[in-house]
Design brief:
The chain is mainly α. The chain contains 3 helices and 2 strands.
């Protein structure tokens, strides 16, 4: 039907869908990257076929206990005085200002 006055509405693709399509196109056409399978996960290989033999030992990601942070008596007294001042006056210190004033 080529006669008459008609116009076609343009198809609007949301920006997120456009980004997804663009990303898929980049992945499909990119041949310079080597894909990594799960079997190669523990060792890293470069595209020039040199193998780096850095295998991860078991337990490398276990949580380690941090040493406790000890504050001097001066710092503790200063913070306690600032707290008591806030109780008496009803005005709390701003933490950023308090850290600058303390100088510690």
């Amino acid at each position: 039907m080529n006669t008459g006055k008609h116009s076609f509405a343009t198809t609007v693709i949301p920006i997120l869908d456009q980004a997804k399509l663009f990303y898929k196109q980049l992945i499909d056409t990119d041949t310079s990257r080597a894909s990594i399978t799960l079997n190669q996960f523990n060792s890293i290989s470069s595209t020039s076929q040199r193998t780096i033999s850095n295998t991860l030992s078991k337990g490398w990601a276990f949580a380690k206990k941090k040493p406790p942070t000890h504050y001097s008596a001066d710092v503790i007294n200063f913070l306690q005085d600032a707290f008591q001042e806030g109780i008496v006056t009803g005005k709390k210190w701003d933490p950023a200002v308090l850290s600058q004033v303390s100088g510690y």
